[in-house]
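Technical note accompanying the year-one report. For the benefit of new consortium partners, we illustrate the data format agreed upon in the data management plan: each record pairs a sequence with a structure-token string. No post-processing was applied to the example shown here.
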Amino acid sequence: MWPAGSRTSSLTVNAMSGDRRLITIVTPCFNAAATLQATLASVAAQGYPNVEHIVIDGGSIDGTLDILARTAGISYVSEPDSGRAEAANKGVRLGSGEIIGWLNADDTYEQGALQAVADAFADPADPLWVTGYCRIVDADGVEIRRAVTWYKNFLLRHYSLSLYLTQNFVPDPATFVRRHVLDEVGLLDQNYKISHDYDMWLRVARLGDPVVLRRYQSRFSMSEGTLSMSGFERQFDEHARIARRRGKGHQVPVAVNMVMSRLIVLVYRSLRLVRRLR
């Protein structure tokens, strides 16, 4: 049931057909007026006929609600929450789709992403989850960190559970899962401030490998002030703890994760020190 203060557009209601390939996109947001329109537009521009876009707002005061109120084809709730994980979980519970994806309020989909996902899930092999490539862009939408993207794409092409336990290379905005899988493994763990997605996808990964689409599915925005940058050290500490928790029977990959997490943090500390000294 939708809580008081929410809105469901008629277009979204008509999409709730019960079709197994109904895709629910959940967008958690808070004070996202500067970026939200581009995110909403990237979903609307997909042209995929059976999509349900749910925005869970944490009580924004910057104009975000004005954007949501005038945007057709979405459903939204605005009420205080504890952060991204709680909001994302709430959106899943409110949704109707058999296929679930998350798109943050400063990220966007590449054209054709949802159709590619629907086609992958329609395969007779009946995959549990699907992922693909993701570009990293700055606040102006310019692609950055191409070497990092190339490296992650390389790891995705050679995916295995053991490899995934060594580091987090599955891009959350490009990843989709069947609802019944989430019913089995559970939703995002709110005890993790930043890396709750890695924890959840590792739980899904224990059930089976994803279908990896060798195409760009999304754009992840990374700029100074975002959670991914400001909480960098905490992020990799959580990665190592999550790998230990979810890596039963894979002691070597878990140990590699611990070493790599510490090494990456050391490298970034050094790079920031060099920039400050210039």
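Partners are asked to follow this layout when depositing records. DSSP finds twelve helices and ten strands in the chain.
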